[in-house]
Amino acid sequence: MAESPAINTSPLIFLSKANLIHLLQIISPKIVVPEAVAQEIQAYGKTDITAQTLATIDWLMIKPMPEVPTVIQNWDLGLGESAVLTWGYTHPETEIILDDLAGRRCAKTLNIPMRGTLGLVLTAKQRGEIPAARPVVEQLRLSGMYLSNRVIDQALALVGE
Hints:
Rossmann fold; mainly alpha
């Protein structure tokens, strides 16, 4: 069985703010939160919704990461992105959850399986976990996630909406 997927900061923030954190369990019963990602979130303070989510949900597992491989360091990404990519790189049967474009390009180059927050919503729709994707996407937008109308329309077309 593959290891649990690792998640970056922005998907955690968007899902927490939109009260959609439960969607992560569609892809795995446990989600790895690299220490660097947890520290980014905890820096917002104990009253932050994502920090509270991280502190109270036991299936979000904060884990230390090995040293970032040179092949990832060369991309000059943030600490959180680098840690998530390191997890995917060192656990090749596992995916990562990442929205950052530069991080996604790195993952693609290194053949690290990935999906973004929008991809998670599409998976939820495909598996019948949600009746429609559009309202969930709109909820994410209201929570601060930027998605262009073109990207949304293209994504929703993939699930017949």
